[in-house]
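Q: Please design a sequence for this.
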């Protein structure tokens, strides 16, 4: 039985199972021998389905009780994130899902074809093949011959262990240290941990105007909203929406802000090499939120992002937002004139006398 504080809602658990690259199948044969296999599982309707050849060990589990599981590691938390001396607090944040049921053999050709279609969409989303149809001459024989097994999602249980057992102070410290460490996955982990612990204090790097929440790791789920914000801006003029979307997803760092209703109201991104150069792109705030300090909050977050903070030089271009960037230390180094308009190329140098990169955030005015 899951501890209630860790229980994942059903929709999130199904989504985790659906996106998992592989799932684990545990069962027994009719001789009570254990079976543990890694399979390519997909969610189709109310079942998790997987396939194989109609011979061998998978045949032995048909009609047997089974467990199908998947998991995602969110972040590794060293002991000193919580306690400077004891080793005991070391832990791993993760999300997992288990499905308990009976292994069924799927016979209906249309369900077999649906399973194979889902599998191809998952592992070959770019297409490049004739759509799978159980009656198509290319697939009819293959669909008839493939073994498809499934387990009902009726008994599905999801767990999200994201620090809910920690005190608000401990969660706040974990958030700060994940941001400071900046290892792969840490930035995305911050958003997940924060969402799971709404009573935790807002870390200083995530301070934002009232009724807004900063997002450290924007992604696929945010791309359409962010694209809609950027369509029609002067710097995206002539760029099709699908290209804007692709550029967002290709960023080294991409942050955003949502209002109380969850609507995306600001975004900013950067391309960075982690050491020498970073370019800032697509800084935008929805009209209703301009003049409230949200643009400044997004820039503070982006400049201190683990992918950007070590860059010796940060550059950007703007026609009209020089006053937003100047408090962070940006200065105009060149003015380009295009179509009768001035575009300022601005630069921020962040190398101290000792050669170490520094971040000027402490000198930037907050909340303006």
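A: Design:
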């Amino acid at each position: 039985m899951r501890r209630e504080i860790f229980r994942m809602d059903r929709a999130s658990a199904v989504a985790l199972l659906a996106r998992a690259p592989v799932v684990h199948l545990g069962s027994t044969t009719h001789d009570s021998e254990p079976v543990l296999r890694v399979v390519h599982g997909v969610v189709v309707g109310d079942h998790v389905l997987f396939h194989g050849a109609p011979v061998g060990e998978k045949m032995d589990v048909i009609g047997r009780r089974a467990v199908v599981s998947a998991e995602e590691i969110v972040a590794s938390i060293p002991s000193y994130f919580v306690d400077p001396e004891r080793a005991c607090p070391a832990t791993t944040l993760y999300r997992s899902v288990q499905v308990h049921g009976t292994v069924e053999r799927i016979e209906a050709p249309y369900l077999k074809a649906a399973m194979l279609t889902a599998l191809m969409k998952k592992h070959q989303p770019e297409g490049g093949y004739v759509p799978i149809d159980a009656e198509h001459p290319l697939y009819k024989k293959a669909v008839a011959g493939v073994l498809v097994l499934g387990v009902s999602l009726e008994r599905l249980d999801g767990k999200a262990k994201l620090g809910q057992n920690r005190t608000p102070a401990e969660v706040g410290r974990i958030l700060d240290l994940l941001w400071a460490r900046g290892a792969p996955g840490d930035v995305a982990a911050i958003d997940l941990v924060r969402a799971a612990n709404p009573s935790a204090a807002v870390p200083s790097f995530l301070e934002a105007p009232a009724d807004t929440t900063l997002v450290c790791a924007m992604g696929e789920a945010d791309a359409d909203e962010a694209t809609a914000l950027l369509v029609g801006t002067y710097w995206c003029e002539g760029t099709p929406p699908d290209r804007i979307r692709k550029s967002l997803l290709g960023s080294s760092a991409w942050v955003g802000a949502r209002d109380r209703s969850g609507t995306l109201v600001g975004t900013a991104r950067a391309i960075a090499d982690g050491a020498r150069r970073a370019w800032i792109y697509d800084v935008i705030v929805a009209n209703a939120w301009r003049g409230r300090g949200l643009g400044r909050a997004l820039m503070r977050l982006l400049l201190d992002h683990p992918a950007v903070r070590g860059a010796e030089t940060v550059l950007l271009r703007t026609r009209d937002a020089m006053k937003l960037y100047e408090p962070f230390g940006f200065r105009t180094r060149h003015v380009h004139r295009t179509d009768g308009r001035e575009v300022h190329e601005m630069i921020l140098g962040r190398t101290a006398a000792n050669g170490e990169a520094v971040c000027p955030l402490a000198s930037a005015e907050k909340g303006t």
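Q: Thanks. Anything notable?
A: The mean pLDDT is 93. The first helix runs from residue 10 to 19.
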